[in-house]
Amino acid sequence: MVLMLDSASFGTPTEIVGESARFRSLLSLVERIAPTTHTLLICGPTGSGKEVVARRVHAQGLHPGQPFVDVNCGAIPENLIESELFGHARGAFTGATSQRPGYFQQVGRGTLFLDEIGELPLALQTRLLRVLETRSFRPIGASESLRFEGRVVAATHRDLQAMVREGRFREDLYHRLTVFVLEVPGLDQRREDIPALVTHFAARQPRPLSFSEVALERLRQAPWPGHVRQLRNLIDRLGVLALSERIGLAELEPFLAPSQNASAEQDDLADALLALEGDNKLQAAENLLIDRALQHSGGNKSAAAQLLGVSRKVVERRLKSRESRGQDAELLLEEGRRRVEAAEFREAIPPLRRCLDQLSRRHGAHVLQFEAYRLLGVSLRSVNGWLCAEACACYEAALQAGEGLGYGSELASMQFGIWVTQLMTLELGRARATAQDMLQRARDLGSPAALDEAHVAMANTLFWLGDCEEALACLARGGLLQGGEDEARSGLQGFDLVALALTFEGLAAFQLGAFARARQAMQRLLLRCGEDNPHPFNRALALQGAVWLACLFEDRERLGPLAADLDSLSEQHGFTFYRGIGQVFRGCHMGSLGAFDEAERFMLEGYQSHMLNHGGRLFHSFQAWQRGELLLQAGRPADCESLLAHALDLALEHQERTYLGELQTLKARARWAQGDPDGAEQELRSALSTAMALGSVSARIAAATQLALLLRQTRRAQQAAELLARALRGVATEAPPPSLARALQLLAELGTGH
What we know:
Rossmann fold; ATP-binding; mainly alpha; disordered N terminus; ATP binding; nucleotide-binding; 35 helices; Sigma-54 dependent transcriptional regulator/response regulator; Helicase, Ruva Protein, domain 3
């Protein structure tokens, strides 16, 4: 669909014109992305409507009533742009006679639209990156930083990836901006919308214009290098200068550029050449001509050269150059493959990109392109998180290149990438359906590695849906329970599937009250996460599971070192998402020591800066539970209740049910701490019912313990004892966590009347 603006409404989108599939898809993405706070990059040719899309994002965002500030980074002199963006204090420089707020301050909680972001000087790119990472900025000459509460939406018509390779744009800023990318198609990619656009623009003229069918078809077939803006300008000229209100072909032709009167046949040929595969269209066109000439001449180079109008030596040089490029690409691909196998993901990215650049000039290199895109997607995802836009684009390109090649297992690995994105964005219903498709594909392929991967994917999804019993059953069906110390099952992605299976076996067992089994899983994970593990990424996976279980078991002695190891290992190797997990658990450890302010800082930095921006919302409920516990212990029950209310809304919206009971119990405790025992009791009973319905023994113990404490305090000790005894009935006491030990102690006290 084509978004249009009413000039009298300061850019508020008021009408949607057109029905092309490309724009319907774009609008669908806008509707999903707009109600978030993520940074966003809008790409597309000049004149295609990038600012219109940005305003649409703002209008459908969380704060449409806040300002929309439009900044053209290429239109502000370089010596002024820093002051314009960040503002300045009085006396900061000569001429600064008063304090001036910059755009980052003016925007409030609204949207800061940085148009032509590719024109931003390198020095200011560093400062912008800092704002996006810390959500704060310091005006020029000021002594204190200010909080940035808005959203950054950037736009460009340039190839930022090429600028990164050339050193003209910071790679870390590129990845920070491309949490989501919207591609606005040019007018040449949606010609079916031209008649509707013409009608729309014509209705806005001082006198109404109408167009004949022949004139509309002429406009639809014409090239539009200036895209929608050029079309609008043409209609504006017709509205003033055309002699008649009825525009036919004779009235239209004088207003079209001379280039638009070129042979339609030549235009079609040029369009076909521009549609060739690869970035270098000139090289692709040359390859096509040489191959066709050789085909016509039966492989005779002299005859082919005569058809092409060049000498035989020219044809031989071109063929030799093509062969050399192909060999270079294969060497680069092999280097990238070695790097990925050694978990050197950051180092694998440059050779894989150069490989793809070489392959873009080589006709028919689908096999190599598939492998290069696949490995680049794996590397980008490992370095920049599961939601890296470029990684997703690589997976899509790999799928396209792999169609018809018979690469069943490789295409299954692409499906794994799709499942991960759905899981991390809490599209759990879709993730479950994709995992089911993965299981079916793996069975059809007869691939043990694909089947292992599919079982882990399904168990992971079921765990977050709150179906821990079925998660364990799924792992059992895949033969993935209680993996041994030396067992290695890597699947198609090269990950340690045994570590992942042990993680979710331990987590699910803990929720179901099989605490001894959960401890066994933790012990096996500890054996896999030592420094003798040669694969850094697999070590990070094992550390994640071990530290998670240590936190649940309140094992302070293990929690701190494991969290620090995960944090430092992930920072060293660029595993951004797992660094966030490490920092959240470091916050848990600091909170257990009473260092509440430092603990909260680590948790917020870990989740918001590293996990939320790179891995989605998957970890949201658990970190909210742990951060809420921290706030409650720090004497901030109102903040705790507010945090938990939001977390519960998100969990219910996305069916993320695993820690639902824990969230409800903690919210009730916050209400109790604020002097509302009646409200707390009601919520605790609801939490207990939720835990019973989900079969979550750990949540049942927590809710029943708190409810028993409340009942005892309100002089209902006998009722408290009966309730707690029922809740603990059938719970195994072997290797109990502290929460169960506390519940048993309370039951004993209630039985003796203490």
